[in-house]
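Hi support team,

I've been running sequence recovery on a batch of backbones for a student project. Most finish fine, but this one hangs at about 90% for roughly twenty minutes before it completes. I'm not sure whether the input is malformed or the queue is just slow. I've pasted the structure tokens below so you can try to reproduce it. Let me know if you need the job ID as well.

Thanks,
M.K.
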């Protein structure tokens, strides 16, 4: 059984619609869709935004549904200058950029866990990377040229890199630059991945994180955000995961 989580319903409704059989189970005010997707047993849920929401969802998937692997799929704001809107990042490691118990513990370190960066599962991440590459090569099957043009998506890059998560939507250029300086290896920011990473580390569940760049984590970040989720991000997620499941 594989767990698939996104933060927002707009990101995952299309994927839920592809399930061939599904049973809705409500736990802790969250809806979990348990069933089959392209011949594989899955549980799919939207966690809502933020680290606590994502961590809670991941724990429920592990303890209640017994998932053996978790994939988090969603959008992120670019920190690396090499990333453009529409590019795809498969996370290498995740870090909580708003974790700071200094001077008692080093900044970014999760207290009493001795860890700042949480590694994703290499096998799952490589498979997601391959799926994303195949998706990009066949992008016209999934998204119309008009839509791509509307979001100025031209050459789509697929890359591996470190991802930072925090309970903040980054739209402030000073915050953007602070993060870049304090965490030089990060390529993008989002609000859930590192929470799922910590849970999966604690429960020893392999996980991977797929992020589509929706903005540059600056003052333009909120423009067309919802439109991007429904028109672009949900199609990326569904297309890449369909290929991913066919590679298992
Ligand atoms: N997810 C997508 N864009 C983001 C941003 N700018 N900050 C945090 N999370 C995001």
């Amino acid at each position: 059984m594989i767990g698939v989580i996104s933060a927002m319903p707009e990101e995952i409704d299309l994927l839920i619609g592809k399930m061939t059989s599904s049973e809705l189970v409500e736990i802790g005010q969250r809806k979990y869709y348990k069933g089959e997707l392209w011949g594989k047993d899955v549980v799919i849920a939207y966690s809502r935004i933020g680290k606590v929401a994502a961590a809670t969802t991941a724990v429920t998937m592990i303890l209640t549904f017994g998932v053996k692997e978790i994939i988090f799929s969603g959008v992120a704001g670019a920190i690396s200058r090499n990333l453009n809107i529409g590019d795809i990042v498969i996370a290498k490691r995740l870090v909580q950029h708003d974790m700071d118990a200094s001077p008692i513990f080093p900044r970014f370190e999760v207290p009493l866990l001795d860890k700042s960066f949480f590694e994703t599962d290499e096998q799952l991440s490589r498979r997601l990377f391959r799926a994303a590459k195949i998706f990009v090569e066949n992008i016209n099957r999934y998204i119309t040229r008009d839509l791509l043009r509307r979001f100025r998506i031209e050459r789509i890059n697929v890359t591996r890199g470190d991802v930072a998560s925090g309970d903040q939507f980054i739209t402030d250029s000073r915050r953007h630059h602070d993060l870049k300086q304090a965490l030089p290896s990060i390529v993008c920011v989002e609000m859930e991945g590192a929470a799922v990473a910590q849970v999966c580390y604690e429960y020893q569940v392999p996980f991977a994180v797929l992020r589509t760049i929706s903005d540059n984590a600056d003052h333009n970040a909120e423009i067309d955000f919802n439109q991007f989720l429904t028109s672009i991000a949900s199609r990326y997620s569904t297309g890449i995961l369909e290929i991913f499941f066919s590679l298992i």
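--
Follow-up from support: It reproduced on our side and the slowdown came from queue contention, not your input. The longest helix spans residues 225-246. No action needed from you.
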